[in-house]
Amino acid sequence: MNKYIKTLFLAVLIGFTACSDEFLTVEPTSSQEAGGDATEGAILSNLGSAYQILLFDSYADFQYNSVTFMSDLLSDDVYKGGGSAGDQQVLYNMSQYNLNGDLTAGGLWNIYYAGLSRCNGVILACENAVGVDEDKLNQFKAEARFLRAYYVHWLWKFWGNIPYFEEELEAPYFAPQFTADQIYAELIEDVNFAIEGDKLPLQTSAVDDGRASKAAAMMLKARIVMYQKDQSKYAEVLADMEEIYNSGEFQLADYASIWDRAGEFGSGSIFEANHLAEGKDWDAAWTGYGTNLPTFISPNELTGTDLLSGSTEYQGGWGFGPARTEIVDIYEAGDTRLAASVNQFEAGTYTARFQNTGYFMAKYAAREEYNDAPYTADLNYENNVRIFRYSEALLNAAELIVVHGQAATSGLTAETCLDAVRTRAGVASIPATAENIKLERRREFFGEGMRYWDLVRWGDTALLNESIPEFSSERTWDETRKYFPIPQSEIDRTYGEFKLVQNPGY
Asked: How far is CA 373 from each of CA 80, 97, 283, 366, 383, rounded to the nearest angstrom?
């Protein structure tokens, strides 16, 4: 577990013990004077601070902010769960598409704006570098711009029309509000910079596990372009997926093995957030390396054995995120992904909580010996969050060929891609139709926060409307729900030419 990112953090002695209440003002992360000369050490200090944002989206800013979980809450895969509808009220309202300016994902907003600011700090330091090798400098710039695009793309997906800045801000620390399309253009500029010119290796070596790679930038570009439905760039994205496929750098690992400790940074991994079982505490809102997600989604007071996998390694948690009962039916007989994706425990071996279905998300579930933190164990599981996997590149390629009519240039076929994913799962070949490719994505990525964004970009949002009184879910999705309401507190503190405008429908 002594991976690159932790080594970098410790080497530069980053101590994020405080963060401003203002989302545009983040405390300095190195001893470099803003705008002054920057040594390689100062650049690495800033770069380490930028990477650490990856570790903050389960608990930071005194809130539970898992972007993976929040994304799944919006989908038709899981319910909110927990103690009651009012337990983490914002999450329940989120699942019902019923947020407002005073009840929105403010923690996620603050975390990713901190990420934007820290990435800007890296880029500024690179512009003022002294005595740094040019190849290293280009790599650092590419890493920072990849990370900036990654953080901003979440702000763009959730809020659309957002403040954006790339320079150091002066008091009163306001930035102009961009439209969603303007943000898209900025994202493309950043990911293209990271991809072009071989500034980054296609895949990192073991010593650099956790760092950005060219393949990771390609995967991020694919998500951004396909969500924007920018047909003019589909051919570029397919070419990127072909390059990943033809490189031979990635293989599909046994599915169950992906999610345990030994599977971290495995052959099918393109980019992961490297969590470690240490450092987070309730009173320290911007510190540490662990994740709270396993505690959050595991059944309460668990004592039983998982009926699907037969495993006894799972531990109890808080009972959020129960899987919907219909999820088990999307998997065919013999599909090994079911037992790796869903846990089922016998009634009476855990405490049933709100919206209980008897099924839970397995990939990031709490496991024995994955948490030896000396304190605040609930916040400090070491489960890495898998952000980009090779199977996504394959299914992206299949979709681009079949659904969007793109022609592969290297002989790659949609059937080849779909067959590879299904063969690894232990199920037979099926035709590479649009319907089958969409369903395969749901099976492959259940519990990874992708289903909702797929439904929105496909225009399949009618599947999100429901009236299920027995599970306290009554919701209707329309285009005004595509974006969250901007936090009212942010609107209230801006004025003049920088006055934030609330998203339509709120």
From this structure: 27, 36, 16, 13, 13
Query: How far is 178 from 164, CA to CA, in rounded Å?
Result: 6
Q: Are 258 and 266 in contact (CB under 8 A)?
A: yes
By C-alpha distance, which of 150, 145, 169, 161 is closest to 57?
Answer: 150
Helix (H) or strand (E) holding 466: strand 466-468
Report DSSP state, residue 482.
S
Pairing type for strands 385-389 and 269-273 reads antiparallel
Per the document, the length of the chain is 506
- Residue whose token pair is 């699907």: 308
- State yes or no: pLDDT of 26 exceeds 60: no
Cis before 172 (ω within 30): yes
Residues 6 or more apart whose CB falls under 8 angstroms from that of 170 comprise none
Amino acid at 116: L
Q: How far apart are CA 97 and CA 477, in angstroms?
A: 7
The pTM is what? 0.94
How far is residue 273's CA from residue 53's CA, in Å, rounded to a whole number? 9
For the chain, what is the largest distance between any 2 Cα atoms, rounded to a whole number of angstroms?
Answer: 65
Return the SS3 of 81.
strand
Contact 341, 250 (CB under 8 A): no
Q: Where are the beta strands (DSSP E) in 196-296?
A: 269-273
Structure tokens at 237: 């994205």
What the block records as the tokens of 469 is 């009184």
Q: Which of 158, 240, 286, 205 is nearest to 410 (CA)?
A: 240
Q: Which residue has the tokens 């990127």?
A: 240
460-475 per-position pLDDT tens digit: 999 999 999 999 999 9
Q: What is the pLDDT of residues 197-228, one digit of tens each?
A: 999 999 999 999 999 999 999 999 999 999 99
The string of pLDDT tens digits covering residues 239-280 is 999 999 999 999 999 999 999 999 999 999 999 999 999 999
Closest to 503 in 3D by CA, of 225, 100, 96, 112: 100
Contact yes or no for 216/171 (Cβ under 8 A): no
208 touches 216 (CB < 8 A): no
Strand, coil or helix: 256: helix
Nearest to 68 by CA among 388, 463, 450: 450
Report the pLDDT averaged over residues 146-150.
98
414-424 burial string, b = 16+ CB within 10 Å, else e? bebbbbbbbeb
Which residue, among 223, 373, 390, 356, has the nearest Cα to 294 in the 3D structure? Answer: 373
Contact indicator for 437, 418 with CB cutoff of 8 Å: yes
Q: Residues 452-455: contacts with CB within 8 Å, 24+ apart?
A: 452/71, 452/72, 452/74, 452/75, 453/71, 453/157, 453/223, 453/227, 455/75, 455/76
SS3 readout for 269-334: EEEEECCCCCCCECCECCCCCCECHHHHHCCECCCCCECCCCCCCECCECCECEECHHHHHHCCCC
